[in-house]
Amino acid sequence: MVYLKFMYRTNGLKIRSELVRLGITNKSIAQSMNPPVSRQVVTQVIYGQAKSSRIQKAIAEAIGRPVHEIWPDKNNKEAA
Questions:
Q1: How crowded is the C-beta side of 37, counted as CA atoms within 13 Å?
Q2: Does residue 22 have a pLDDT over 70?
Q3: For the chain, which domains are there?
Q4: What residues contact residue 43 under an 8 Å CB cut-off, 6+ apart?
Q5: What is the pLDDT of residue 80?
Q6: 78 pLDDT higher than 80
Q7: I need a surface site. Which of 1, 15, 39, 52 has the fewest CB within 10 A?
Q8: How far is CA 51 from the centre of its chain?
C-alpha cells in the first residue's frame, strides 16, 4: 500500500511539473471542463487520490500525452 501511494505521488509530481512547464494551471483545466469541476478535484486526480476518466482525459490532452501512458491500467487495452 505504501508503494502504491509513493508511485501515485511520484507520477503526480511528474504530471504537475509538466503542467507547470507548459504554463497550465489546475484551475484552467477545471474551468475548461463541461460542466466545470473544482481545481481541488483536478489536483486529486493528478495525485491519484480520486479517479475520473473525464478529468484524466482533459489532463492528458493538456500535456499532449495519451491517458494510458500517464495512468497505466491493467484493464486498459491501449496500454497493452
A1: 18
A2: yes
A3: 14-74 (1.10.260)
A4: 26
A5: 37
A6: no
A7: 1
A8: 9
